[in-house]
Design goal:
5-stranded mixed beta sheet; globular; alpha/beta; single chain; 9 helices
Length: 222
């Protein structure tokens, strides 16, 4: 699952789907992989993190980092980035923590807002965000938020590409060594191609949060 973007209501629905499927199919071991962009753009980033942290206590979960989590971390350490963050959906994250910036915050307000955000965020949220992984490999599958740079071995990929890459990766038809499962670039419906699968269906704008199930070599996006 990827690019939840603060849509806590959709996340709750998908978790019910997961739990019902596991109860029905009874796999020997089920791993849940979440591929980043939990915050920004949607209405309730705070609740989304609460739900994911609660889910993490199960012990069979993997949480990857998205470019929006990176952006949030950068803002917390560098308030001058606040205005840019607000333009890409950070306003909704601030509001979910009870903060309401003015339309054009000056430098003083930017610093004050970041201090208030850091105080408003529960310690568990900050710890969760600090422990996010960049990639996860399971068998023939490689999970990542944005994608990988063609021609670079998977073990040598740079963080910026894993979190931000688009066209060079999306246009490549090469075999990357493993099958890449990613999000980051919204598509109207899930793309299951020969070398990669994109399951970001723009939940915050479409109301469609996609879940992909993998059993052996069988893949299904719902």
């Amino acid at each position: 699952m990827t690019d939840i973007h603060g849509c806590a209501h959709l996340l709750r629905q998908m978790l019910r789907v997961i739990d019902a499927d596991v109860a029905r199919s009874r796999p020997r071991y089920a791993i849940e992989v979440y591929m980043g962009d939990y915050v920004d753009r949607g209405p309730d980033s705070r609740s989304t993190l609460d739900i994911l942290i609660n889910r993490s206590h199960r012990g069979n979960t993997v949480f990857l980092k998205g470019n929006h989590e990176e952006f949030l971390g950068n803002v917390l350490s560098n308030p001058s980035l606040l205005t840019e963050w607000l333009r890409v959906g950070g306003l909704y994250t601030l509001m979910s923590y009870g903060l309401a910036p003015s339309p054009s915050p000056d430098e003083k307000e930017r610093h004050a807002l970041v201090r208030e955000l850091a105080r408003a965020m529960p310690r568990q949220h900050l710890e969760f965000l600090s422990k996010l992984r960049l990639t996860f490999t399971c068998g023939d599958f490689f999970f990542v938020h944005a994608g990988v740079r063609p021609g670079v071995p998977l073990a040598e990929q740079h963080e910026a590409d894993l979190l931000w890459i688009r066209e060079e990766f999306l246009q490549s038809q090469q075999n990357f060594g493993k099958y890449i499962v990613h999000g980051h670039t919204p598509v109207r419906s899930p793309e299951l191609l020969e070398n990669r699968a994109n399951i970001d269906t723009g939940a915050y704008a479409t109301g469609n949060l996609t879940l992909m199930t993998i059993q052996g070599s069988s893949m299904l996006a719902v």
